[in-house]
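Students often ask what a 'structure token' actually looks like in practice. Rather than answer in the abstract, let us consider Integration host factor subunit alpha, a protein of 91 residues. Its sequence is given first.
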Amino acid sequence: MTKTELISAMAAECSLSKTDAGKALDAFMHQVTVALASGEKVILAGFGVFEVKERAERTGRNPQTKEEILIPASRTPSFKPGKPLKEVMKG
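Now compare that with the structural description of the same chain:
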């Protein structure tokens, strides 16, 4: 599903215009981004948790030259699905 398809589905389900549904989706994504950037978790009961994971510095290997390289520590966004979402996926 693309962003456009999601906006259309949201508009239909909530009796909104596509413009309003698009603004709502953009606002949601912006607020999740702001929260994660400040180190907060975003917990959506019944759906899941968005959070930032810390990745430690580690040694890697350049596949072309086989030379060892140092991969710096980083922060990456992560999503952990909630139990109801996991149950739906089991079928």
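One point worth highlighting: Residues 56 and 73 are 5 Å apart (CA to CA). Ask yourself how you might have guessed this from the sequence alone, and why that guess would often be unreliable.
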